[in-house]
User: What shape does this take?
Amino acid sequence: MNRRSFLTLAAAAGAGACSGAVHQLPPVSSQSLGLAQAEVARAGPPRRHHVSDAEVDEVLASALQRIRPAASTLCREMSVGVCTWRFRVSDDRSLNASAGPDGLIVVNRGVVEYADNEEQVAMVIAHEIGHQMADHVATGRRNQVVGAVIGAVLLGALGAAASSGGYNSSAITQQAAKTGADVGGAVGRISFSKEQEREADYLAALILYRSGIDLDKARGFLVTLARSSGRRETGMLDTHPAGPERLAAWDRAVAEVRASRGRLPQRA
Assistant: This one.
């Protein structure tokens, strides 16, 4: 077995040991993806709006107040992840937010600067809450550890076999194991991250729906993100779906949420 095949095996084994989305997510058709790609291509460039520090705080607080009751109820209903959240505003002006350990959610001021309305800001916050309630932060850490262990064992064994009886065999084996751990950890970290991003968007749609927030107004932020990134297709090693794919998945999720009147989908 050559090195490329062994790394492929390590990647497959690591992916098999990881956990992805908690729920079954609706599929996205090639037709829906094509429509989303065309929409993003027609959209204008992202526009930054001037907002003061006080306005940033006010918009974020108002958006959170609108969605927090429904989000807390949904989190208890799922009974999977973290339902107590800590919020922080970052001075970073990029279009980003993040979910961290112990329920931490950080929202960049850039989100407010690029959002066209409060509904879009609420969607971003709800997305990060979705990561917390589905326990994606802890799952991502476990995936990385499992992938690193599997990669180290498999590639270390390959290095030992290839250098058996040769000069500096021990050092070669150790280096192979280290490389395997690095590769396996990277694979484990990204194996299901795109699936988890889609689930966080689905949960965000549920939160907004249950909060009585206009899902169509919120949708515009995904178009802005897609225009900002410039990626039209998702690669195998990407951690997030490309903009058009995410937009098409959002539309599919919203249709399902509306049809079910805000019920959770089936568990995966």
